Amino acid sequence: MHLLPFLPPLLATSLKAHAANDAGIGAEFESVSVTFQNPKCSNENTDAAKNEVVANRKHDTWYLSADTGSEEGKLNAESILDGEMIKAGTGDAAKTGKAVRDDLVTEHPRWGKPSAPAGKFIALVTKEYFQSKPNGIDGDKVSDDVLGFLTLVLSYAKAAKEVLRPDQSPKLFTSFMPRTGSNNIFQQVKSKICGDLFKLLKVLACYKRGPKGLE
Q1: pTM of this prediction?
Q2: N or C: which end of the chain has fewer CB within 10 A?
Q3: What average pLDDT score do residues 80-95 get?
């Protein structure tokens, strides 16, 4: 959940819509730091509580829910951004992200001053990553939607080096999990990405953010 205070800049990468049926933007943010526990609950009851709205915290574009963890009678808090209500290009994703962040900070003020800019495997791609003009792309001209897409792809690529079980995905190792299909997202930005996508990502993957900034 340490990524939530940075939702506005990340979700500001709203995809620009080109048609009425463009993809919605849905996401879920799960926390292992905020939990709901009842030692009297069985596994069956715990599973039944999954995805239920918590304390009537349901809004037009998002709601507070819970997801099962590894323990009986214990659920992890989870904020769900409704991809059916949040459409690409409307700017609603950024507004909803801020609403979720504000709600969290109200409940847990200490999270209003995070110590790190992203989660363990969030490779937040910024315009600095284009200083060598990979694929001839000028960083000053890279739009937010492209940066958002590249952030997701690069984050999953870096997380994939972890040991995974056959039924696991690199998405499990990131704080941010989109509910919008990757292909749908790519369709929105591919016209803005010059050259070969794989070659571009190989260059971006060489950068890392250290104490002195981007290296």
Answers
A1: 0.57
A2: C
A3: 82
